[in-house]
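Hello forum,

I keep getting stuck at the same step: I have a sequence, I want structure tokens, and every attempt I make locally crashes halfway through. Rather than fight my setup again tonight, could one of you with a working pipeline run this one for me? It's a single chain of 195 residues.
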Amino acid sequence: MTQNDQHYISEILDGDTRAFAILVDRYKDLVFTLALRMLKNREEAEEVSQDTFIKVFKSLGKFKGDSKFSTWIYRITYNGCLDRLKKHKQEYNCIPLDDYTERKLMKLDNAIDAMETQEQQQTIKECLRLLPKEDAFLLTLYYYEEQSLEEISKIMGITANYVKVKLYRSRKKLTSILKEKLEPEIIEHYERERK
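Reply #2:
Ran it on my machine without issues. Output:
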């Protein structure tokens, strides 16, 4: 937790509710992005984002500071998304896992690295939307929000080792989607270059 977060939390607890607007402004985009990745619906993500900040405001006195404030907010967002998914009984988008060898994964990773950064990021974002909700959420936390395994384990309520396993599986799913999405010429060109 940054010193600034603690400062504003103290102000809010002392009765200055205007300080809460600063925390909302600081975390609103991150909360919305995580909710959108999981729910894949803009309106639902907006509602979960609003609910998250209402819960944060009401529960701020219970925040002990054992973890970073952002980790606490992400956990509330994650739980809100899970509740919303259970409520609407949405089914996860299942993507079959092919038996990729490590060599194939490495080739695909290298082919992706060869793409222009902007094009690469756009392709990855499109493919993230096709992943099951929890996988997209996990990869967003790890790669875009740069949360540590320990922080993710606190957010998702699972062990750090299980986070590693889920990251590996999520990455394989993303690789499968990327392989289908990438033009075969890019992969073929890269493989010819490597021989």
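The domain at 102-194 is CATH 1.20.140.160 (Butyryl-CoA Dehydrogenase, subunit A; domain 3). If your local run keeps crashing, start a new thread with the error log.
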